[in-house]
Amino acid sequence: MDSPPAKRNPYQSRIRAEQAAATCALVLDAATRLFIERGYAGTSIDAIAEAAGVGRSTVFAAAGGKPWLLKTACDRAIVGDDEQVPLLERPEARKLFAMTDPTEIVTAYAGILSDAVQRVSAIYEVVRSAAGVDAEIHELWLEMSRQRLAGAESIANLLRRKGGLRKGLSAGRARDIIWIYNDPGLHHSLVGIRKWRQNNYREWLTEALKGQLVG
What we know:
- The chain is mainly α.
- The chain folds into two domains: 9-64, Arc Repressor Mutant, subunit A (Orthogonal Bundle); 66-213, Tetracycline Repressor, domain 2 (Orthogonal Bundle).
- The chain has helices at residues 10-38, 45-52, 56-62, 66-79, 91-97, 102-131, 135-161, 171-181, 184-193, 198-213.
- The longest helix is centred in the middle third of the chain and has 30 residues, at 102-131.
- The relative contact order is 0.10.
- It comes from Mycobacterium stomatepiae.
- InterPro entries: Homeodomain-like_sf, HTH-type_TetR-like_transc_reg, HTH_TetR.
- Residues 44-63 bind DNA.
């Protein structure tokens, strides 16, 4: 007679899950650092494994191949942690969508946006550079652009519903304006290259968006 299957120990399962998450975080930290330092093509799985202190097979088991690592590094940088919650569904964004004053909405959005692009601009430039030579990364680049456009549309429609768009500005045109300003490349140019202070960038972004959007 067959023995009954052994029961899973919830504590052991939780420990294994925590260990797997910790290993994945180590791999992602190493991959992000190397992508920024060496570029996408210049970063090998072996180099990531060595930097993370794990074996090559562990990189694939814990995280995945290079395209997945780069995409996840970007997603992680945008939100600032490993939680699988989109930026516009987080508490600070929910508070923004509950606001009624258009100027306050734009100010809050500029604050959220400036923090996000500060985190993501360096790794975003890795995607930008690799998109021209790698088909998978080109698709990632296009998807990130679509995500930025969708986020911009959410803000434009919110301002339209609150009657806050300046006279003559359609929600579609407002979406496209926001899409230009939510490009992390702007942060890279002004803060990364021109050496603006982050608070100066945030102030500029806030005033620029107000001037372009709010009536």
